[in-house]
Amino acid sequence: MSELAATCALCGNENDLAAIAVEPKDDQNVALCATCRAGVEGEITDAPHWRCLSDAIWSTDAATQVTAYRLLSRLKSEAWARDLLDIAYLEPENLEWAEAGLVDDGEPPVIHRDTNGVQLAAGDTVTLIKDLNVKGAGFTAKRGTAVRNISLVADNEGHIEGRVNGQQIVILTEFVKKS
Ligand SMILES: [Zn+2]
After folding, report:
1. Ligand 1: centre distance to CA 9 (Å)
2. How many A from CA of 83 to the centre of ligand 1?
3. Domain span including residue 161
4. Residues 86 and 147 in one domain
5. Is residue 110, in this structure, part of any structural domain at all?
6. Are residues 93 and 136 both part of a single domain?
7. What are the phi and psi torsion angles at 119 (to 5°)?
8. Interval between CA 32 and ligand 1 midpoint (Å)
């Protein structure tokens, strides 16, 4: 065991440090404060604290960089985290290491299904199964209307988007049938 660093590898906090193994490499540790450990080991939600990752992702210490990468991946519903992941550079072996730790960690995949439970994909054509009052657009999308080339709302399995009456609208998957 190496000596414990004096500050948190991610945020620089000096209090309540503990070494955490960066799986699957049991011999590689990062020293983390209680706040960072809670994010690594439990739920992580967007908070100003995690802006520390914008420095940590550039750390020259591989274990720190890998840890930052994993946390950012779990925050990637946030635009700032996605932006960082886009510009971050990890050596290929470190990227592989980082992703090895994400396997069981991802959110369940978002799968869009029509009213019959048939899986929908971007580009599909669907038919409306009831008249839909389009809020804010001032028209009703009629039952039977075909909506071509739909797109899927990435973070909401109940929503798709498509053009009706020349307008891009959000449609609930429960009201469509795949054509
Ligand atoms: Zn910390």
Report:
1. 7
2. 21
3. 126-178
4. no
5. no
6. no
7. -70, 135
8. 5
